[in-house]
Specification:
The chain has 426 residues and is an alpha/beta fold. The chain contains 14 helices and 16 strands. Strand 12, helix 14 and strand 13 form a beta-alpha-beta unit. It is globular.
Amino acid sequence: MNLIEEMTVLARQARTASHALTRLTTDEKNRCLRAMADALEGDAAKIQAANALDLEAGEKAGLSAAMLDRLKLDDRRIQGMAKGLREVAALEDPVGRLLDARTRPNGLKLQKLATPIGVVVIIYESRPNVTADAAGLCFKSGNATILRGGKEAIHSNGIIAETLVTAGRRTLPVFPAHAIQLVATTDRAAIPALLSLTDYVDLCMPRGGEGLIRAVADCSKVPVIKHYKGICSVYVDRDADPAMATAVAVNSKCHRPGVCNAIETLYVDRAAADAVLPQLAGALWEQGVELRGDPDTVTRLGNLAPAGKLKPATEEDWHTEYLSLILNVRLVNGADEAIGLINEFGSHHSDAIVTKNEATAKRFLNEVDSAAVYWNASTRFTDGGEFGMGAEIGISTDKVGARGPMGLAELTSYKWVAIGTGQIRG
């Protein structure tokens, strides 16, 4: 078979499996998920042997230490994958939820019920644990999933997917064999081929860097849920408590600087700059952060900055997701200017205001056009687990469909069910 034929078989099998998944009960799905978790722990040695092949190939290919660390599956990470599956099993089943109900004057009863999306393609890089996470979430929400990991984790992803399917089939005689499938080829042409199959594939979710996500969105003929990058920010208002502002800003930047909900820009109300800017800068410098400031910021902090920790910001900096200990700082004339700049330069992911002024906070929360907005709290909370979803499959900054952290409920669509007694339309 050529590549398009191979991807068509994969997608057609997934479509068939998606129909079979609708017949599984919540108990059957949960039994399978718990069996999958047990199997991952039971097959840890086999999984680590496959992972060793990826690590060896990665070292030969010159992958960085950080990339190799993302690839590595030690006992703790395998246990983490198993724990994640058990947590998904414990969550409420999103399928079949009653979203709306009404009875029309003619007696026709209407129900809006949550249903699986169908066939979901997940494209991701580096971390093989995503294989278990994505498969588990899609399975619980009744979706067949096609997984396409990076070539650097091909052996690890393969054994994880095989372990999950084997455990499911051993647990449930009617387990759909193709509910979880892995794209076996590392040929990049497989992605546009797979995402051209609109008769079989319903949705694609890419997870990775901006380059990967843009490449997927550009080639896909099926809907793509995504966020390109996380240019998040904190605005410190003139009515902010300085200690709170410092704690929120430092946590938002330094807790994990390499993730999408870490801030890249700090806006400070000029009216509060004398009181809070030196304290903010000092706390950030203690964490090793390099600040890149507008002219006013550089002037105010120039005599305080450690060597190499303060630079003038360039125009490009305001558009940059650093994912490291670099932070832009800009002074603004109040909340209105901050809101305008966040909407212009941000990525509509997560943004926060620190203020004691409720009216100012409400204006910020209403007018900042982002998937998650915060008042007196760190942007690091934009996460499925932190939002009480139990788990997430990704974060969306799209405005149609799911937005923000995507948990089980966001992996469903809905249908209208009409129950009548013979009504006809006149």
